[in-house]
Amino acid sequence: MAETNKPILDDENEKRWYVVNTYSGHENRVKENLERRVESMGIQDYLFRILVAEEPEIEIKNGKKVEKMHNMFPGYVFVEMRMTDDAWYVVRNTPGVTGFIGSSGGGAKPFPVSPDEMESILRRMGQSDKKVVVDFGVGDTVRILTGPFSGIEGRISEMNDQTQVASVLTMLFGRETPTDIPYNDLQKVTE
């Protein structure tokens, strides 16, 4: 007879993203520590990608443009893992880790990051596997759907398919101003 009481969703076998809290400024050290532990403890089947969410930022130093990495979430590291008891224990007890975000404490396992939120972060970092199919291109008029520019229309001047961000020229204070907007937040205006 088939077992009918088996849960439909077995969380320990689901590969999901979790947010680990670290001491601010120690994110890369925690990432290295976790990567070393994955190798030394042989837990490659439970811990997968470990990310410090960074994006390039242009800074002007001595009149020259310098590109440096900007941490989008100081004090946090993203870990793609299967939430088994062993994997949870290893991550929690890694030097520099102060806990998981989304855990109520008292031995309760944390909640994973929603796939949509994680996809947005990966896209900003240029590491997204999913590509958004768009019906607009350079020169087209689009409407911004979310954020502080919601409802404003503009013309696309550039598109970056790797980061899935378009530069939209909008009228602000009587001037045409370029604004970078993710593809997902744009809709083509049909005339």
Q: If you had to describe this structure to a student in words, what would you say it looks like?
A:
With 191 residues, this protein is α+β, with helices and mostly antiparallel strands. It has two domains: 114 residues, NusG, N-terminal domain (Alpha-Beta Plaits), CATH 3.30.70.940; 48 residues, SH3 type barrels, CATH 2.30.30.30. The protein contains three helices and eleven strands; from the N terminus they run βαββββαβαβββββ. The N terminus is likely disordered.
Outline:
The chain is an alpha+beta fold and 191 residues long.
Looking at this protein, list some descriptive labels.
single chain, 191 residues, alpha+beta, Alpha-Beta Plaits, SH3 type barrels, 2 domains, five-stranded antiparallel β-sheet, 3 helices, 11 strands, elongated, disordered N terminus
Q: Which percent range fits the helix content? A: 10-25%
- Chain-averaged pLDDT: 84
The strand count comes to 11
Structural class, by secondary structure, is alpha+beta
Uncertain stretches of 5 or more adjacent residues: 1-10
Q: Give the number of helices.
A: 3
Provide the CATH superfamily of the largest domain.
Answer: NusG, N-terminal domain
Rg over CA atoms, rounded to whole Å, is 21 Å
> Could you tell me the strand content as a percent range?
35-45%
Our count of domains comes out at 2
Write down the CATH topology of the largest domain: Alpha-Beta Plaits
Name the CATH architecture of the largest domain: 2-Layer Sandwich
Overall body shape: elongated
CATH C-level class of the largest domain: Alpha Beta
What sequence of helices (H) and strands (E) makes up the elements? EHEEEEHEHEEEEE
Assembly type of the shown chains?
single chain
Distance between the termini: 63 Å
Largest sheet: 5 strands, antiparallel
Q: How are strands sequenced across the largest beta sheet?
A: 10-9-8-7-11
